[in-house]
Amino acid sequence: MKKFFTLLTGLFVLQICFSQANLPALGNSYIQGQIINNGKNQTVMLCNQNLGGASSPVAIVKTDSLGKYKIDAPIPFQDYYFLKFDNGQIYNMILFGADSIKVFTDTRDALRFTNIVNSPHSVLMNEFLRKFYDFRAFEDSLRTVLKYNPALQTKADSIFKPKAEMFYGYRNAFISTYSTSPSIIVTLSAIDQEKEWELYKQVIGLVANSFPTSPSVQNAVNHLSNLQKEKDAKAFLQPGNYAKEIALPGINGDTLRLSDLKGKVVLIDFWASWCGPCRRENPNVVAMYKKYNADGFEVFSVSLDKAGDAEKWKAAIIQDGLIWPNHVSDLKGWQCVAGIDYAVKSIPFTVLIDAEGKIIATNVRGADLQNRLAAIFGH
C-alpha cells in the first residue's frame, strides 16, 4: 500500500509560516491511541503542515509493548493535523484544542483501518478521502490500460462515466450535507478549478465560515484571492472574445501570423520541447489534425523554448510528428511575447478559436479536444 499524503498536499500553496512558540495554546489535546498490528515500540508523531510537518512535530511519543500511546500536547491553533507512523503512513484529523480522542490504527493501511472516537469531523474527512483515493486509483488504472492500448478509449469511457457520475454525485452530496463542517476542505482536491470554479469558491467560503481561525483555511482563502486575480487578468480569454494576434518567427525565421489562419478552426498550442505533459499530449493533437485538417482545422504551435534550445525545439517537432506548418517561437522561454499576451503561467496551455477568430475554450486537450472537434465538424 502506498503512503498517503496529508490532506493539504496538492490543495494550495501555503503562503504563511507559523511559529508555535509565538502562538497562544488553546489547551492540551489528549489523544489515546493504539497501533493494533505490530505496534510495539513504534514512534508516533502529531504534526501540522503549518508548523513544518513531520520535520517539526507538535509531539513525539513511543508506543508500549501493546502498541498503546498517549499524546497530551498543547495545540497552538485549531487546524488540520495528522498522525505519522514509523512506516510513513499518516492519518488526518481535525483538532480544536482541548480535544479528547481515541485512535485505533492498523498502520498497514492507516486510512482504511483506523477507528477514531470523539472526533466526528475527522471521521467525515477520512470517509471522503477513502472514497476519493479509491476513485483516483480506478481512474489511474484505466489511464494505464489506455497508455498501452489507446484503441480501448471508447470502452474505457463507457466504464468510467458511471463511476465518475457516482463519485461526483457523492462529492456534491457530501458538500451539501456537511456544509458547516471543516471536513469539506478535502473536497477541494476533487474539484476541477477551471471547470468548477464556482463550486471551488463555494467550498472555500463554507470552510472560511465554519473554521475561520484555521491557518490552513486562511491560506486557502488567500490562495483563492490570488487565483481570482489571475482569472481577472485572463478575462480576455472568455469564450466569445476575439483571440489576440500572434506574430512570431517560424522555424525558418519568417514571420507567421495567427490572423493568416482566419477562416479556420485553430488550436493555439503553447508548449516546449522540455515539457513532458506537452509531449505526451502531442499524439492526440496530431491525430486530431490528421482527422480534421481537410475540414478546416489548423494548429498554431507556440514554443516556449529558449534560444539555447532552438535545435531541441526543431528536433521535437520532427520526433513528435507535428506535421502542421505553423510553428513559431521568439525563443525567449517564459518571456515569450505571445506567452505574456496570453497570460500563460504553465504549459501545456491551449486556446481553441473558431473560424472568425473568436475563442471557443481554453485548456482544451485530450478527450475534451476530441469531443469539441467532433461537435464542430460533425464526425
List keywords for this structure.
379 residues; alpha+beta; Immunoglobulin-like; Glutaredoxin; 3 domains; 5-stranded mixed sheet; 4-stranded mixed sheet
What do these coordinates show?
By secondary structure, the protein is an alpha+beta fold. It folds into three domains: 99 residues, Immunoglobulins (Immunoglobulin-like, Sandwich), CATH 2.60.40; 111 residues, no CATH class; 131 residues, 3-Layer(aba) Sandwich (Glutaredoxin), CATH 3.40.30.10. The strands form four sheets. The protein has a five-stranded mixed β-sheet, covered by helices on one side. Strands 4-1-7-8 form a four-stranded mixed β-sheet, with helices on one face. Strands 3-2-5-6 form a four-stranded antiparallel β-sheet. β9 and β10 form a beta hairpin. α1 runs antiparallel to α2 and α3 packs antiparallel against α4.
Kindly give the count of domains: 3
Strand segment count: 15
Structural class determined from secondary elements: alpha+beta
The radius of gyration over CA amounts to: 25 Å
CATH topology of the largest domain: Glutaredoxin
Q: How would you summarize this macromolecular structure in one to three sentences?
A:
The protein is of the alpha+beta class and 379 residues long. The chain has 8 helices and 15 strands. The longest helix is centred in the middle third of the chain and has 29 residues, at 120-148.
How does the SSE layout of this entry go?
Elements: E1 28-35, E2 43-47, E3 59-62, E4 68-74, E5 79-85, E6 90-95, E7 100-105, E8 114-117, H1 120-148, H2 153-177, H3 197-210, H4 215-233, E9 247-249, E10 255-257, E11 265-271, H5 276-292, E12 297-303, H6 310-319, E13 327-328, H7 337-341, E14 349-353, E15 359-362, H8 366-377
Parallel strand pairs: 1-7, 11-12, 12-13
Antiparallel strand pairs: 1-4, 2-3, 2-5, 5-6, 7-8, 9-10, 11-14, 14-15
Helix pairs in contact: 1-2, 3-4, 5-8
